[in-house]
Amino acid sequence: MSSLFDTITGQPRAVLMLQAALINPVPAYLFVGPSGAGTRNAARLFAAGLLNDKNNDQERHQRLATAEEHPDLVIVDRSGAFVTAEQARDIVRTASTSPIEGNRKVIVVTDLHLIRDAGPMLLKSIEEPPLSTFFVLLADEISSDLVTIASRCLQIEFVSIPASELEKLLIEEGVDPDRARFASQIADGSIDRARILASDDGALNRWNAWSQIRERLNGSGGNAALAADLVLELIDSSAGPMETKHSEEKLALDERAERFGERGAGRTTLDDRHKRELRRLRTDEFLMGFSALGAAIRQEISDQTIDSQKAIRSLTAIQKASQNLRRNPNEKLMTQHLMLELSD
Length: 344
What we know:
By secondary structure, the protein is α/β, with parallel strands linked by helices.
C-alpha cells in the first residue's frame, strides 16, 4: 500500500498514519495543515485507498480519485467566503445516500476551518455516518468553530514543507537549480506553488516589479491608482502557465474518456477545479507580491535607508492587506488602498 502515497512530499509522519488508517478505517478523519502542504492530494489518495476496499483495481481507483472523477468520491468546496448552511445540509443528505459503484463512499470537505455556524448541522453525520460513508475533512487550523467536530475525528497533521526539500524535489524533476532555489524560497512551503513558479518564466520579473513598486509612488491618489493597475496586470499575466496546464488536463481527460469510456460529469468536475485553482493562483500571487514588498522594506531597514516609522506603517499596511484576502475583497479597491498607504 505504500506506493499509493508516493506522490506525497515532505510528510513522512502523515504518510505513516495514512497507511495505518487504511488497515482499520474509522468514520471521519481531519487533515490539519496549510493547503500548500498537500492535504487535498493526500485526501484524494487516501480516498482511493478506502474505495479500493476489495483490492481489485487500485490503479483505476487511484487514477479516478486523483482526477476527482471517481463516482463514489464527493469533494465539497465552499461556494463563498465560508462553508454555508445550505452546503452543510447537502453534505448531510449526501452522507445518507448509498455508494454509486462500490461498497464505500468518501466525502471530502475542504476549508472546514471556515465552517462557522454551519458546524452543528454536520456533527451527527460525522459522528455517526452510515457504515458505507467516510468523511475526510481538510482544515488549515482547528478554529473555535471546529473544535467539537475535530473531537469526533482522527486527526492527521500536515506541516509546511521546508524550502530545502522543495528545492531538492524541483531539481530532481529537472528544474534548473537557480530557478528551483528561487521558486522554493518564495513558495511558502507549498509544493504546488513551487512547481507553478518553477515553470513560470515571468515569476522572477513579477517579484522584482512588486519589490520596486513603491518607487512609482509619490503620495498622489492618481499615482497610487496607476501603481495598483500595474499590480493587477502582473497578477493577470501570472495565469498563463496554469492555463496551459489546464488545457493539457482537458486533453488528457478527453483521451481517458475515449480510452476507458468514462465520460459522465468529468468535464464539469475538471472545469470547477480549474476555476478554483485560478482563484487560488490570484491569492498566491497577491501573497507573493506582499512578501516581495515586505522583503524590500526589511532590506531598507537593514540598510538604514528608510524612516523607521514609515517602515512600520508600510509593513502594517501589507499585513492588513494580506488578512483582507481571506474576505474575498474587491481586488482593485484593496490594491489602491494599499498603494495609498505605502505612499504616506
